[in-house]
Design brief:
Helices cover about 45% and strands about 15% of the residues. It has about 375 residues and is of the alpha/beta class. The protein has two domains: about 280 residues, Aldolase class I (TIM Barrel), CATH 3.20.20.70; about 70 residues. Strands 1, 2, 3, 4, 5, 6, 7, 8, 9, 10 and 11 form an eleven-stranded parallel sheet that branches. A two-stranded antiparallel ribbon has the order 12-13. The N terminus is likely disordered.
């Protein structure tokens, strides 16, 4: 029997406290287009539990009011059973977003996330993702129309509260998957071109019953370059009447500890590239054993087999694995030759031979317990 995906917005870990400082953090997995689809979520969750929710790569809501087959497959309940999953929607139209919320709610999801952070030019020029941040009057009307239409549709939009109440709702989904109730969260940048846009954005967000504000502390035009703007993030945190989640350049346990010491009020952290580099990062932060070479080998092999079972064409499978290796390869020294062979592989056989070479010849960065 397939589990109701209402179970997919809960925290699977009862204890996220770092023994070093006692700080309780709830970790979210960032959506990374082309990488963090359901095969990744299933395998990472089974091998490295501790993520409160995995946010999906965005589904594009459009005038057809239909999603692509590939997008729908990624959020089907049977492909996310037992994995805490939050669908993310990309659009700049309230009617399209409401339709998407209703469709996801029908599938059993309790939280739906709006993408206001995608920096890719294709989306920005269409005033979607981070491009939507540039016209704050339009963004304000979008939210006003969205919540009016959700009310007219008979959906109860759960009000925001403290970070602890927000975390409690995530956990309560497991025990009470109530129909007719939904949460709307946003993932945003601090602005599109200017960090000064942040003040206006927070005024808009504060006017509506959003459940969580995930802030990637860069401008849209920054893409992933430079350092996150922690000063602007701090101002947005102070201004927010909603629970806030931080996102941006958390790659090591030291990064996490350094951030939580500066911002002790933040109870949610979203990590993307850091988890791709070290899938055991959350376990390590909580005092567990460091990533082991053999489990990384198993993890990469399971991902390869999972992609091979759901993706047509060997090259398409290898594109996924090549991208994953750009991150996982940072765990090794002395393996550059084989990592280059992975990037150039044109067949499954050449890919597998190169991956085996990484583990055979590379020096794995094992931390001392």
């Amino acid at each position: 029997m397939v589990k109701d995906p209402a179970d997919n917005n809960r925290n699977p870990a009862d204890n996220n406290r770092n023994p070093a400082d006692g700080k309780e953090i709830r970790f979210l997995c960032a959506p990374l287009e082309g990488i963090t689809g359901f095969p990744f979520r299933q395998i990472h969750h089974s091998m490295f539990p501790g993520i409160a929710a995995y946010y999906t790569p965005f589904l594009v809501a459009n005038q057809t009011m239909k999603f692509k087959n590939k997008e729908m497959r990624d959020v089907l309940p049977e492909n996310n059973a037992g994995v805490p999953t939050v669908p993310q929607i990309l659009t700049n139209r309230a009617d399209q977003f409401v339709h998407a919320v209703l469709r996801m709610q029908e599938l059993g999801y309790r939280e739906i996330n709006l993408n206001l952070g995608c920096p890719m030019p294709m989306q920005v020029t269409k005033k979607r993702g981070a491009g939507f941040l540039a016209d704050q009057d339009v963004l304000d009307r979008f939210f006003e129309e969205t919540f009016q239409e959700l009310e007219h549709a008979g959906l109860n939009v759960e009000e925001t509260g403290t970070s602890e109440q927000c975390a409690g709702r995530i956990k309560a989904d497991r025990e009470n998957p109530a129909a007719g109730s939904v949460r709307v969260s946003v993932k945003t940048r601090i602005g599109l071109e200017d960090a000064a846009e942040a003040d206006g954005l927070m005024k808009i967000f504060n006017r509506y019953p959003l459940s969580l504000i995930v802030i990637h502390a860069r401008r849209g035009v920054d893409f992933y370059k430079g350092s996150p703007d922690l000063d602007t993030f701090g101002k947005m945190l102070e201004q927010s009447s909603h629970p806030v989640c931080y996102n941006g350049d958390l790659f090591t346990t030291e990064d996490i500890v350094r951030f939580t010491k500066r911002f002790p009020a933040v109870d949610f952290l979203m990590i993307g590239r850091g988890l791709l580099q070290n899938p055991a990062l959350i376990r390590e932060y909580k005092g567990g054993k460091p990533l082991q070479e053999e489990e990384l080998r198993t993890y990469m092999q399971r991902l390869f087999e999972a992609y091979h079972s759901v993706i047509s064409g060997d090259m398409n499978v290898m594109y996924k694995m090549k991208e994953l290796w750009t991150y996982a390869g940072t765990q090794f020294t002395g393996a550059d030759r084989f990592l280059k062979q992975i990037r150039k592989a044109r067949s499954i056989e050449s890919y597998e031979a190169a991956a085996a070479g990484v583990f055979r010849e590379g020096q794995f960065h094992t931390k001392v317990l």
